[in-house]
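anyone seen this seq b4? input:
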Amino acid sequence: MKKIFRVMNGAPMAAALRRLSAAGRYLPSFSKTIIPSSVCFSLVCFSLHGEAQVNPDYEKVLTERTSKIVKNLDITDSSRYHTVMNTIVHQYMDLNVVHEQYKTAVTGIKADSSNATAIKQQEEKRNDALRTLHQRFIASLGKQLNPQQVDQVKDGMTYRVLPVTYSAYQDMLPQLTTAQKEQIYTWLLEARELAMDEGSSDDKHKVFGKYKGRINNYLSAAGYDLKKETAAWQQRLKERRDSK
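predicted toks r here
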């Protein structure tokens, strides 16, 4: 554990925030938010003087979550293993900061007045920050992992919703055409990329829920009676379970 978080001592969260601010990524958008000399988010507590303190409870949760992902990557080199661990841990940390800053800014706006334009601006700034973090994260993973392993990390960070959902559609609708399968998979890939950047399990699943709605509309337009197909599929699943 000490090895995994060693980099934090050399580059504490406050320093990371200063680098992001200097790059103009997201901190300027929260200029109306009053930030005290000591700030505590759900994952990391830090002071603006540079002292980083990891919340022990969240440290445990975060490490366990990351370990479950990395242990399935078949990494035999210890140094590379810990580098990947560190990369994922810090991605979770950075995402947490972006989302918490956004929540703080929006709360301040709503307390002052219901300014839809100001909230929209905060959303755009948050999304820009998330895109930057996403691109940097994938680039970092690509230096240590092959494409298949990177996909495993993405699935691990999104609770394997993509492969489970894609398999379910194929099982429910075995008559799907190749083009339809490709479209479903393309939308699920897009959903996974967005869900990776969300800050909670619920929000990750909401992203997939939005895309499942799009897929269902697409299939309905193609002539599938999804209510009927779902009922028939559930019956097949029941028969499979009963036959075991």
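DSSP finds ten helices and three strands in the chain. The beta strands are 38-40, 44-47, 52-54. kinda curious what u guys think
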